[in-house]
Structure formats: structure tokens, C-alpha cells
């Protein structure tokens, strides 16, 4: 968990970028459209949408829900799993909608496409976040902390 705003922004950025990268590749593979051009072409807009949704909508709501759950809040792993799971549910809900709108637009089959995408994305995103991206990004955050890159007081002195 981040200890200040700089760490929070850094952690959010690396998690969001990683998840968008992996989930974009996954969805392109699912639809038989994977190529480096397609991946890179959708990466920046997907990251921007995901990042804004994360910081403006999902993170606050996910944390409120996670902290309201009847968990042992003293156990760090319980809180990490709760917050991460709530974040994944929220982000999958929004980003599946984004993906369907980009791919198909708002058609009469929107709900069918959305539900199909939501389920397939959740099946991939939850273990991806809990087992790979989350732990790796927490490790990166811890290494960045040790190097003092993320301290609030690391201003340049003349």
C-alpha cells in the first residue's frame, strides 16, 4: 500500500499500464486480431481511459467497499486481496464497456457483447492482478521506496 500521494500515483500508473497492456493483448488474441500495431494503437487511449476511471471513480469506491467488508483489517494480505478484488471488479465493469463501445459501438447486441466481455475479462483480470501484476508492482514500489525516488521530501537542493 502506498504511503503518500507520490507513491499512490506511481503505483496506480504502473498497475494500470500493466493491466491495460496484458488485457489488451488478451482481448486482441480472443478476437483473432492480435498484432503489435493493434496492441500499440489501442494501448495509449486504453491506458488514458483506464487511468482516469481508476483515479476518478473506481479506486475510491473499491476502497470504501473493501474497508466495509467484515475482514481482519490488521492483516495486510486480507486488505490487499479485498481492495485488489474490488478494483478488478470495478475496472472490468468499466473497461469491458469501453472495449465493446470501441469494437462494436452501441448496437442492439450491446448487452450481450458486454456480458460476454465482462465474464471473459474477469476470468483473466482477477488472477492476473492477484497473482502477477499486483505482486510485481508492489515489489517495484518497494524497490522505488528504497531508492528514495518516491519520498515526498526528495526535493533538489542548491
Q: Report the sheet-strand fraction.
A: under 5%
Q: How large, in whole angstroms, is the Cα Rg?
A: 17 Å
Give start-end ranges of low-pLDDT stretches.
Answer: none
Query: How many β-strand runs?
Result: 0
CA distance, first residue to last residue = 32 Å
Mean pLDDT, all residues: 92
Q: How many distinct helices?
A: 4
Tell me the series of helices and strands, N- to C-terminal. Answer: HHHH
Largest sheet: none
The helix-and-strand class reads mainly alpha
Helix proportion range:
over 70%
Number of spatially distinct domains: 1
Which oligomeric form is depicted? single chain
Taken from the alpha-carbon principal axes, the silhouette is globular
Pfam family, one: DUF2798
Keywords: Membrane, Transmembrane, Transmembrane helix
Protein name: DUF2798 domain-containing protein
InterPro entries: DUF2798
Would you give an account of this structure?
It holds the Pfam family DUF2798. Keywords: Membrane, Transmembrane, Transmembrane helix. The chain crosses the membrane at residues 9-28, 40-59, 80-102, 122-141. Helix content is 79%, strand content 0%. It has 158 residues and is an all-alpha fold. It has one domain. It is globular, with a radius of gyration of 17 Å.
Amino acid at each position: 500500500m502506498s504511503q503518500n500521494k507520490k507513491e499512490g500515483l506511481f503505483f496506480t500508473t504502473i498497475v494500470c499500464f500493466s493491466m491495460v497492456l496484458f488485457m489488451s493483448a488478451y482481448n486482441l488474441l480472443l478476437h483473432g486480431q492480435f498484432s503489435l500495431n493493434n496492441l500499440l494503437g489501442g494501448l495509449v487511449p486504453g491506458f488514458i481511459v483506464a487511468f482516469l476511471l481508476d483515479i476518478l471513480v473506481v479506486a475510491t469506491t473499491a476502497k470504501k467497499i473493501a474497508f466495509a467488508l467484515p475482514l481482519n483489517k490488521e492483516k495486510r494480505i486480507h486488505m490487499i486481496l479485498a481492495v485488489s478484488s474490488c478494483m478488478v471488479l470495478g475496472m472490468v465493469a468499466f473497461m469491458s464497456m469501453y472495449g465493446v463501445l470501441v469494437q462494436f459501438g452501441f448496437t442492439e447486441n450491446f448487452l450481450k457483447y458486454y456480458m460476454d466481455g465482462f465474464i471473459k475479462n474477469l476470468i483473466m483480470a482477477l488472477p492476473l492482478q492477484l497473482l502477477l501484476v499486483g505482486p510485481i508492482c508492489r515489489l517495484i514500489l518497494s524497490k522505488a521506496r528504497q531508492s528514495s525516488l518516491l519520498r515526498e521530501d526528495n526535493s533538489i537542493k542548491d
